[in-house]
Amino acid sequence: MKKVLWQVLALMLVASILLAACGTPATEEVATSTPAAFPYPAGGALEEALKGAYNGKTVTVDGAFEGNDPDGVKFAESVKAFEEATGITVNYIGNKEFEATISVRVDAGDAPDIVDFPQPGKAAQFVASGNIVPVSEYLSDEWLTQQYNQSWRDMVTFDGAEMGIFHRFNGKSLVWYPKKAWDEAGYPIPETWEELIALNDQIVADGDTPWCIGIESGAATGWAATDWTEEMMLRTTSLENYDAWVAGDLAFDSPEVKKAVESWSAMWFNDAYVFGGRSSIVTTFFGDSPTPMFDADGPKCWMHKQGNFITGFFPEGTVAGEDYGFFYFPPVDPAFGKPFLVAGDSMYMFNDRPEVRALMEYFTVPESASGWLQGGGALAAHQTVTPDMYGVELEKGIAELVAQATSFRFDGSDLMPGEVGAGSFWEHISSYVAGSEDLDTAMQAIDATWPK
Amino acid sequence: MSGQKRQKQFGKFLVNLTLLILVLLWTVPTVGIFVSSFRNRDKIDTSGWWMIFPHREWQPVRELDPKALGLDPNSVMTIEGVSGTFEEFRAGIETPDGKRLTWIGNKRIGKLEVQAQVWAVDWDFSLDNYRQVLGGQDFEFKRPDGSVEVVPGDNMVNAFLNSLAVAIPSTVIPILIAAFGAYAFAWMKFPGRRAMFILVVALLVVPLQIALVPILRDYKALNLNGTYLAIWLAHTGFGLALATYLLYNYISGLPRDILESAFIDGASHFTVFTTLVLPLSVPALASFAIFQFLWVWNDYLVALIFLGGNPEFELVTQRMAAIVGSRGQDWHLLTAGAFVSMLLPLIVFFSLQRFFVRGLLAGSVKG
Amino acid sequence: MLEAFRNNVMWIIFGSTFSVLFGLLIAVLADRSSFEKLAKSLIFLPMAISFVGASIIWNFIYEYRPEGQTQIGLLNSIVASFGGVPQAWPQWVAVAPWNNLFLIVIVVWLQAGFAMVLFSAALKGIPEELMEAGRMDGANEFQVFFGIMLPYIRGTVISVWTTIVIFTLKIFDVVWVMTGGQFGTHVIATQFYRQSFTNRNSGFGSAIAIVLLVAVIPVMIYNLKQFREQEAFS
Question: Are A175 and A195 in contact (CB under 8 A)?
C-alpha cells in the first residue's frame, strides 16, 4: 500500500519535471561522435564490460566536488565514453562536505563503490581501517608500469601496498602575471631566485607591490601557505629531507623546515612586497587575491603563485596568453635542480564488483580525464597522455613545464595525516602569518598533533 | 489633560523612532545583497552598493601623458599649477579650480588623469545574475579535432520541486506528533510523565551529527536509504524534541479554566485536544511550522547523508553549494543565489504571518 | 579544546541574552507602534535565511579590502570614512576572543525574530483588563511592563531562553561557514565535527555528547521546576 503511495508521489514528481522540461526548447546535442575508443588491459573486467557483460549495472563514485559544479560536469564528461561503451551507469554523489559524509557512509557500512580522494592522506585513514581493496587484486603490474611513471604509483602506496590509482593533477609551481601590462612595462621573466628578487625590487621602485597573496579559505584557511612551505622545502633542502618531512620523520621544528618557512616569510612579511601588506594575507580570500592584477587602472600587484586551477578565479573574460601568462617559480639553489610541486586526485575502490573493477581500469587511461583535458583545469597523471589530447593550450604548456622539471613531488600537506595536513598545519601556519604565534611556537604546535 | 496627551504622543513618537532604527539595523544587511544581486559583477567589485544613492564622484575629463610632459616620477613633479610626489599624485591632488589630478598605474606605464567632481547615481541594474544562477552554467569542451562543444547548464526547477517534496512532509509530520505529545505532557496524567519530559529536554541538546552514523546503518538494514521516506523520518526525529518542547510550553500556558469547564461537561481528552487546544494553539503551531520548514529547506548535511546516492534528488541547497564552492567570492552569483534560495521560505513566512496578529488568541480566550 | 569551551560560553551568554533582549524589546515596541505588522515582518525576515545565506550577507558586510582600496563592505566603508583601519572582522585575531562577537551578531540577527514572534504572541495573550487595572492604579509603562507583563509571560521567556541557550550550545553552521573554527573561533560542535569525521576519532564524539548533556543539566532542572507546577487532569 505504502509503496503505491510512493510511486504515485514519484510519478507526480516525474510528471512535473517532464512538464518543466517541456517548457524550454530541447537543446539536446545531436549524437554525431561514435563511441570513443580507449585502450584497456587485456583479460580484465573492462574487456568483459565492453562486450556488454555488465550492461545496466550502476557504479557510485563519491568525491569532494558537487555533481553540478565545473569539476562535476567535467567528471560526467570524462566517464561518458565509458558509459556509452559498456552500458554501465556511473552515479556521482560527491559534495562539499565530502570529508564528513565519506566517514559517515563508510562507518555506516554504506560505502560508495569508488572514491575520488583529493588528498591521499585522507585515503590513508580508510586504508588503515581496511575499507579499500588493494590495486594488485584487479590490475597487473605490467599494465600499471605502462600507464604510470613510478612516482605516481609511489604516492598511492601505503605501507608497501598500492591502494589506489592516480587520475589527474594540478601543477603548483607556477607564477601568474598580467601579461598585457607586464609586456608593456617590459619586465623580464625571472629564471633564478636572484632575478626574482631583482624584479621584486624593480616593481617596488616603480611604485607597486610585486605579490598578490591571500590564504583565507574558510575552514581550510592556510593551505596556500602550506604550498609555499613545500615549494621552499623543495628549493632549499634535499628531496630526502622533503620525503622525511612528509612521512613525519623530520620535525616541523627542525632547522630545515624552519628555514623553508623563513625563506617565504621573508618575502611575505615585507609590506612593500605584498599588496595590502602582511596583515591582509590571512584575511584575503585566496580566489580573490589575484584580482588586483587585473585592475582597470593597471595592476596593483604583478605576480601570484598558485596551481593552474586558479585561472577559474580570474575575472570573467580574461584570456590565457593575452591577459595573463605564467612562468615556472624559479629555483633558489641550483644544487636542488628544478623541482615541481603537484597535487591531484586519486581513485580508490571500496566495493569489489566486476563493474566497479571495469571503471577502475578505465581510470588508468588518460581518456578518463578527457573532461578536464578538453575543458581545462587539470592534467592527466598518465604517462601515455599525448599533447593532442589537451584541448586547452594553457594545460598543454604546463604539461611541458612539468616534463622539463628535474624532479617532482606531491603536495606534502595532502600526504600527511589529516590531523596535520588538513588541520594543525593550516591552523598554525595561519597563526604564524597573522602574527599571533611565532615560528617556534607554531612549528612545535604542529609537531604535537602528529598522530603517534 | 492636554499635557498628558502631548506626553502620550511623545511616547508614541519615541516608540516608533526606536523601532524604526531597529528595523533599519535589521534590514540593511539584506537590502545590501538584494541591491547587489541586480548589479553586474564589475560594479559590485569596484563600488559599494550604496552608490545607488546620489553621491559626488570624480570622473575623468582628459588624460595627460607623463612621458610627453617630461615628468620624472622619482622627484617632485609640477603639473597644471600643483606639485607633489608620485605617491601624492597617486592618491590624487586637487587643483585650485576644483579639479583633481590623479596618477593611474605605476611609474613605468602610468598616465595622469584630470578629474572633475560630478553628481552621480549608479542605477545600472540587470537580471543577468539571476539568469546565470537559475539557468546554470554552460561548459565548453574543446575536442581533439578542434571542435568546441558547449554543454548547457541545467536549470533549477528540479531542485525546487525536490526541496518541496522533502520540506513539506518533514514539516507536517513532526508538528502533528509533537502537538499530541505536548498536550499529553501538559494536561494528562500518565506514568513516566516526568521522566519522559526530562528525556525530551535532554535530547534537545544532542547535536544531530552524532546520530548520523547509527541512523544510516539502520536505514541501510531497512533498505530505506536514498528515499524520501528516509529523509522525512530523519527530519521528523531531529525536529521532534524541539517541537514538543516549544508546543508544551505554549499548550501548558493555556488558561486552565476553559479546559476545566470542558471536562466538567464530560468531554474526552481527544475532544478537548481537537476542539479547544488545537485551534487555540494555531500561533504556536504556525511559528514552529516556519521554524521547521526553514530548517529543513536550508539543510544540506542531512540531505547529503540520507538522500545521497541519488543524484536525481538534488536539492536547492546543493545547487547553492555548487555556486558558492566553485567560484569563491563571486558576489554577483552569491547575492542572486542567496535570494533565490530565500524566495520560498519568504512566501511561507508571509502566508503564515497572519496567524500572529493581535486578537486571535486574546479574542478566543475571552470569548 | 579549552578555547572551544570558552567560545561556547561566550556564545551562550552573549548570543542568548542579546537575542532575548532584542526580541522582547522589539515585541513590546511593535505592540505599541503604528507599523506593527511591517516591523515584525522585517525583523523576522532573517529567520527565512539559511546559514549559508546569512553568511553570504554578513561576509558582504564584513568584506575586507586592504587599506586604501575602495571598501565594498558596509562596515569597513564606515570605518574607513571615519579614518579607521579596515579589518576582516571575524578574522581579527588581535582582539581575540572578542572577534567571536562578530559571529555572534549574526545569530542574534537571525534569532531575535524568532524570540520576537513568540514574545509577541504571549504579550497578546495578556488580558487587556489586567494592564488597564495597573494603569488605573497609577503605574507607569515601565512598572506595567515589569510588574504585570513580564511575570505574565515568564513561561514564554524561559522557553525561548532555553531554546536559544540550547541552540547556541550546539552552534555549528555559522562558525563552520564563516571561519571554519580558525582564528580562535572553534566551538564544541566544530571541534566535534572535525575530530569525529575529518580525523575519524569517534570516541571524541561520544565524549562531546556527554559534556553537552552535563552542560544542560542546570537548564533541565529549571525547566522541571516549571513542569512540576503544572497540574494535569486525570
Answer: no
Percent of chain C with pLDDT over 70: 96
Instruction: For chain C, give every domain's residue range.
Output: 2-229
Whether residue A237 is predicted with pLDDT greater than 70 in this model: the reply is yes
Report CA A188 to chain centroid distance, whole Å. 29
- CA separation (Å) from C84 to B123, C75, C79? 29, 11, 5
**pLDDT tens readout for residues B260-297:** 888 888 888 899 898 888 888 887 888 788 878 888 98
Contact list in A for residue B165 (CB cut-off 8 A) is 9, 13
The minimal CB distance from B151 to the residues A66, A77, A110 is found for A77
Residue of C177, C64, B338 lying closest to A218 (CA atoms): C177
In what helix (H) or strand (E) does residue C136 lie, and over which residues does it extend?
A: helix C128-136
CB contact under 8 A, C91 and A216: yes
Neighbouring residues of A259: CB distance < 8 A, sequence distance ≥ 6: A236, A237
Give the strand pairing for B111-120 and B100-104. Answer: antiparallel
How does DSSP classify residue C34?
S
Distance from CA of C1 to the nearest CA of B (A): 17
User: In this complex, do A418 and C199 lie within 8 Å of one another by their Cβ atoms?
Assistant: yes
**pLDDT at position C115 over 60:** yes
Residues of C in contact with A282 (CB under 8 A): 88, 91, 183
| Residues 6+ positions from B141 with CB-CB distance below 8 Å | A77, A371, A374, A375, A391, B148, B149, B150, B151
> What is the mean pLDDT of the segment spanning C101-105?
92
For residue B364, the model assigns a pLDDT of: 34
Pick C232's closest partner by Cβ from B189, B342, B366. B189
Confidence of residue B363 (pLDDT cuts 50, 70, 90): very low
Which residue carries 548589479 as its cell?
Answer: B39
Q: What is the DSSP string of A245-300?
A: HHHTSS-TTSHHHHHHHHHHHHHHT-TTTBTT-HHHHTTSBTTTTTGGGG-TTS-S
Note whether C182 contacts A219, CB cutoff 8 Å: yes
- C190 near C180, Cβ under 8 Å? yes
Grid cell, residue B355, equals 496567524
Who contacts A245 (Cβ-Cβ below 8 Å, separation ≥6)? A233, A252, A254, A256, A257, A412
Ordered by where they begin, the domains of chain A are 41-169+343-392 (3.40.190.10), 174-341+411-449 (3.40.190.10)
Which whole number is the average pLDDT over B175-200? 88
pLDDT band with cut points at 50, 70 and 90 for residue A340? very high
pLDDT given for residue B325 in this prediction: 58
Whether A91 sits inside 8 A of B309 (CB atoms) is yes
ipTM for the whole complex: 0.85
- The C-alpha cell at B275 is 476542539
Q: For residue C65, give how far its alpha carbon lies from the nearest alpha carbon of chain A (Å).
A: 8
The beta strands (E) that lie in B97-251 are given as 100-104, 111-120, 139-142, 148-151
pLDDT above 80 for A278: yes
Integer distance in angstroms from the first to the last C-alpha of chain C?
Answer: 49
B26 in contact with C at a CB cutoff of 8 Å?
yes
For residue range A412-438, list pLDDT tens digits in order: 998 898 889 888 999 899 999 988 889
Q: Which of A141-150, A212-221, B331-340, C193-202 has the lowest mean pLDDT?
A: C193-202
Give the pLDDT of residue A86. 92
Q: Which of residues A380 and C167 earns the better pLDDT score?
A: A380
CB-closest option in B86, B136, B304 to A207: B86
**Which sign, positive or negative, has the C-alpha torsion B1, B5, B11, B15?**
positive
At residue B201, the 3 state secondary structure works out as helix
- The CATH class given to the C2-229 domain equals mainly alpha
pLDDT at A266 over 90: yes
